[in-house]
Amino acid sequence: MKKLVLFLTIMFMTMSYGQEIKQVPQINVNGEGKVKVAPDQVCISATVETKGNNAKDVKKQNDEKMDAVLKFIKKSNVPTADFKTKQVALNPQYDYDKKKTSYNATQTVEIVLRDLSKYDELMEGLVQQGINRIDNVSFESSKLLQHQSEARKLAIKDAKAKAEDYVSVLGQKVGKAITISDNSQVYHPRPVYAAMKTEMMDAAGASNETLAIGEIEITANVSVSFILD
């Protein structure tokens, strides 16, 4: 009898607790914020690659070319803090058909150029001094963190505006945000090369512009859950 009374008491308490739980009305929306800015610096990753049959000679030739490259960068008034050696490698490559071993030496330098007007001159000089591989060119903003913050704020405003649009026809209001998820990614545009200058431009002595820099589009994406009042 006591067990039956205890069981009924627990069931009654469980049912009463369940009735007290109320589902909180809410709305889930996505928001996006975009900030477009002109880049004010460019990061260049350039490599000297040398191949040959003798490891010592290959390494020596590669070192001499990279020495010339670094001297040119310094001569171009790029601050010491804005360029550095990123990678150095010397690898054997065995040719199974010829049964011979050759060697491949590479050295990569990473340069941050803060004066974009010197881009063409720098790139031309790098190639002339021995750079034979451009691994990456990315245009960036020195105020990236500031622009990212602005994009995030715009994304939250966009999410709230969407939520208000949805509930406006229901006679409800958007309350506090209860969850926010950041789904943002940063994108750096690659250079877009223009056509080579024509013979007429050469004859006229016109300057050669080899790329269109464009703009950096910094995007923030969020998912927000709002309580409905």
Indicate the proportion of strand residues: 35-45%
Largest beta-sheet characterization: 4 strands, antiparallel
The best one-word shape is elongated
Please estimate the helix content: 25-40%
CATH superfamily of the largest domain: Protein of unknown function (DUF541), domain 1
What is the number of strand segments? 9
Low-confidence stretches: 4-8, 190-206
Summed up, the helix count is 5
| Beginning-to-end CA distance, first to last residue | 48 Å
- CATH topology term of the largest domain: Translation Initiation Factor IF3
Please tell me the total number of domains: 2
Order of helices and strands: HEEHEEHEHEEHEE
Q: Which value, in Å, is the CA radius of gyration? A: 31 Å
CATH class term of the largest domain: Alpha Beta
Strand order within the widest sheet? 3-4-2-5
Structural class: alpha+beta
**Could you report the average pLDDT, rounded to the nearest whole number?**
84
CATH-derived architecture of the largest domain: 2-Layer Sandwich
Write the SSE topology.
Blueprint lengths: L1 H19 L5 E12 L3 E12 L2 H21 L7 E13 L4 E14 L5 H11 L3 E8 L3 H25 L5 E9 L9 E2 L5 H6 L6 E2 L3 E13 L1
Antiparallel strand pairs: 1-9, 2-4, 2-5, 3-4, 6-9, 7-8
Would you give an account of this structure?
This protein is an alpha+beta fold and 229 residues long. It has 2 domains: 23-38 and 144-228, Protein of unknown function (DUF541), domain 1 (Translation Initiation Factor IF3, 2-Layer Sandwich); 41-140, Protein of unknown function (DUF541), domain 2 (Alpha-Beta Plaits), CATH 3.30.70. 36% of the residues lie in helices and 37% in strands. The chain is built from 5 helices and 9 strands; from the N terminus they run H-E-E-H-E-E-H-E-H-E-E-H-E-E. The protein has a 4-stranded antiparallel sheet with strand order 3-4-2-5. A 3-stranded antiparallel sheet has the order 1-9-6. A two-stranded antiparallel ribbon has the order 7-8. The longest helix is centred in the last third of the chain and has 25 residues, at 144-168. The two termini are 48 Å apart.
